[in-house]
Amino acid sequence: MPKKRTHLVGRRPRADAQRNRERILEVAKQAFAASGANASLDDIAKQAGVGPGTLYRHFPSRRELLEAVYRTEIEKLADAGPKFAQTMPPIEALRAWLLLFVDAVAAKQVIGPALNTLIGDHKKKFETSYARMQEAVRALVKCAIESGDIRKDLNPMDLLHALVGVSHVSASPDWQPSARRLVDILIAGSRPTK
User: Fold this and answer.
1) What span, in angstroms and rounded, lies between the C-alpha atoms of 69 and 61?
2) pLDDT at 7 (0 to 100)
3) 100-109, pLDDT tens digit by residue?
């Protein structure tokens, strides 16, 4: 009698499977940014160096792939806050994080409408990821305030609202350079008055 395979719930994926997953997500992010949410999944698999079966094993549907790309971008942003805080001066950590936030907004502009179409209001689905992202910016602003680099009355959410605002105001596809310049303007405007 053949042995039954047991599947361990919560088991970590093999290293090669994890690398495949990460490659698929990175290629998918680029493909969605270039071609929109209807980018060819077969092309994504090919560019990631995996077969279509591997892609579908990790992400059985376009919806799941879109969700995973979006969640990965938000979680990278949340994880970057503590890493930047440990390796950079507070004001530089905040600046680097805000620049990364601009990239996340760009990903959301491509993926957000597709998620709305596929699952309705996606904000509720990603509440935990958003909360972690907000914690990251609050901690970075707190460190910059404590170091004396920025004013004590700065609301971290104002920085995010300004960057999201420029992405919505600009009708041109090159809003990102403007948003990147805005990061430096926001940092300069947040400095304490002497």
Assistant:
1) 13
2) 47
3) 998 888 777 7
Same domain, yes or no: 150 and 160 = yes
My answer on whether 50 and 125 are in the same domain is no
H or E stretch covering 130: helix 127-146
| Residue 111 DSSP SS3 | helix
- pLDDT tens profile 161-178: 888 877 766 556 677 888
Quote the pLDDT of residue 114.
Answer: 66
Domain contains 150:
yes
SS3 171: coil
Q: Which pLDDT score, from 0 to 100, does residue 35 have?
A: 80
Fill in the amino acid letter for 73: E
Our count of domains for the chain comes to 2
Instruction: Quote the DSSP letter at residue 149.
Output: S
pLDDT score at 45 = 96
Burial class (CB in 10 A: 0-12, 13-18, 19+), 30: middle
Is residue 163 within 8 A of residue 183, CB to CB? The reply is yes
Say if 179 falls within a structural domain.
yes
Domain of residue 138, CATH code? 1.10.357.10
Question: In which domain, by residue range, is 46 found?
Answer: 15-60
102: tokens are 């601009």
- Per-residue confidence (pLDDT) for residue 86, from 0 to 100: 97
